[in-house]
């Protein structure tokens, strides 16, 4: 089970283990943002009962790219195909996939209480060695 997110011609594949998106080098998807509109730890991707979610954990906020609505901090929002999120000046998309694979309920861990979604995961990512980083983004220059 995988989720692909894209921004500025780059992509990141998240497995059911999820990950953190942000400027901090310990994040799973590092977005280099010299203007610092993207927080060090901006958003959390989780998988619960076969469904991927995005949770705003930033100090700068995350918006739904289609409606412009601000996501509630700490509240997981289901990621649908073709979802668009605005993290600072970056438009992050969950592109449409022509052949989605069926998801079993056991594909992702059982849901947890909202208060336990960020703290253990962030503690774990802070302790990860820097070699666990998988990709880095730089803002466009145009």
- Note the overall shape: globular
Largest sheet: 6 strands, mixed
Mean pLDDT: 80
Structure classification:
mainly beta
Number of helices: 1
Q: What does the radius of gyration come to?
A: 14 Å
The low-confidence parts are 113-135
String of helices and strands: EEEEEEEEEEHE
Proportion in helices: under 10%
Note the gap between the termini. Answer: 35 Å
Q: What portion of the residues fall into strands of 2 or more residues?
A: 25-35%
Strand arrangement, major sheet: 8-6-5-3-4-11
Number of separate strands: 11
Describe what this molecule looks like in 3D.
The chain is mainly beta and 142 residues long. The protein contains 1 helix and 11 strands; from the N terminus they run E-E-E-E-E-E-E-E-E-E-H-E. The strands form 3 sheets. Strands 8-6-5-3-4-11 form a 6-stranded mixed β-sheet, with helices on one face. Strands 7-9-10 form a 3-stranded antiparallel β-sheet, with no helix packed on it. The longest helix is centred in the last third of the chain and has 12 residues. The radius of gyration is 14 Å and the shape is globular. The protein starts with a strand and ends in a 5-residue tail after the last strand. 30% of the residues are buried.
Short description:
By secondary structure, the chain is mainly beta. The chain is built from 1 helix and 11 strands; from the N terminus they run E-E-E-E-E-E-E-E-E-E-H-E.
Which SSEs are present, and which pair or pack?
Elements: E1 2-7, E2 10-15, E3 19-22, E4 29-31, E5 43-48, E6 51-56, E7 62-64, E8 77-78, E9 84-87, E10 90-93, H1 115-126, E11 135-137
Parallel strand pairs: 3-4, 4-11
Antiparallel strand pairs: 1-2, 3-5, 5-6, 6-8, 7-9, 9-10
